[in-house]
Protein: Protein nucleotidyltransferase YdiU
Organism: Paucibacter sediminis
Amino acid sequence: MHAEWPNRFARLGPEFYTELPAQGLPDPHWVAQSPACAELLGMPADWASQPSLQALQVFSGNARWPGMQPLASVYSGHQFGQWAGQLGDGRALWLGELATPQGGMELQLKGAGLTPYSRMGDGRAVLRSSIREFLCSEAMAALGIPSTRALCITGSALPVRRESMETAAVVTRVAPSFLRFGHFEHFAHHGQHAALRRLADHFIAEHAPECLDAPQPVVALLARVAGQTAKLLAQWQAVGFCHGVMNTDNMSLLGLTIDYGPFGFLDGFDPGHVCNHSDHQGRYAYARQPNVAFWNLHALAQALLPLLPANPEATREAEREAAGEQLLEALEPYRERFPRALLGAMRAKLGLATAQEGDRELVDDWLRLLAATRVDYTIAHRRLSRYGAQPEALRDLFLDRPAFDAWALRYQARLAQEGSVAAEREAGMLARNPAVVLRNHLAEGAIRQAQAGDFSEVQRLLKVLSRPFDEPEQASDAGFPPDWAQHLEVSCSS
């Protein structure tokens, strides 16, 4: 791994980051590695065990490969709807970029110690939260949902206090870019318009070059981000994923799922489900996620407002009003694409090959049926995939059988309307409705074993999650959550 490790972000200037070394883990050990992520990066199969690479030390923050330039970036943002001021990489360090067939990939160490942006934190990550981020990053990628990736976790006996005393870990994260809405908000809020312009020019040149040809590249940039965010949110909602802390500083400019903290996948379908125990007002409830994303896009639009070119013939007020209207228009792709993308995803989950009148009502009524008695979301769709061959297995999930039967008659009529072939439909639905998602109890089982020094369940679960549409060998991976799972809570410390 003798790469040059360029860092395009570092070229923006010292206002954007602080360069500093990692605070490594004492006596580190491997917890897990992702073969799929390593392959994405073009790393050799034995990268983790080659003595000359010292990968364990590098990804624990104790050593660097030549050319690596650790830095922490500054950003700001809105947290739970309120302006939070300056934030930044409080426990993450950018190492640089690795050239891959997919383009440059940035690597970050999460949990490598204090930075100037740690605020009251210790800059560390604990084993529990690192396992959750590692597994979910790779699980989302296997589901086909845009996400940051995770290469590996290293651990140490170093004690770290959260609600209780835990042990430290470092997770290595991977993405084409870790830039967030909050990066733009930071420089706009502080009136650093020259830096704001450099950031926009950098992002467009490196990640959205098609915007250069637009009459207003900044407006095109916002429209692009809005469209990608709409697609991402539709995928989240369709799979039953709850992010838990959709602050603007946790929103990726590339439309990636980023910052896995108090996330969760729905068990029983509850549109009002709040997965984050710290979210006392329910701002980030499952059903509210699409509107929160749109709110966050408005915050990004506000941050971009100073970048629109001035019109010397207009008054300052009129000029600002016109610029604001352009940016609001750039958000329309979200309003248009999100419902269309979600309906398309739900059609696929229901095995509908064509678009017909009444599909939205059929989908909405299906979701209401699930919500009425909190039917398990993942299992219901998996059984719906086999409805033609095993209708009773699906029917048994519903307490209100007459209501299900009434909906099922409409569903069967809709399938007949397009001449659906059962075998073909089942194959397509099984490839869209996962058997396994990273439910909290599955993660918790792997965490408990890891905290006892046994990392085998982390690796086993990673393999299962890498093939989410296959029936797992261990039936419990795709089964109903155990009763004790109802008492699991995840918060911002997760």
The mean pLDDT is 94. The two ends are 32 Å apart (CA to CA). The chain has 16 helices and twelve strands. Residues 187 and 196 are 5 Å apart (CA to CA).
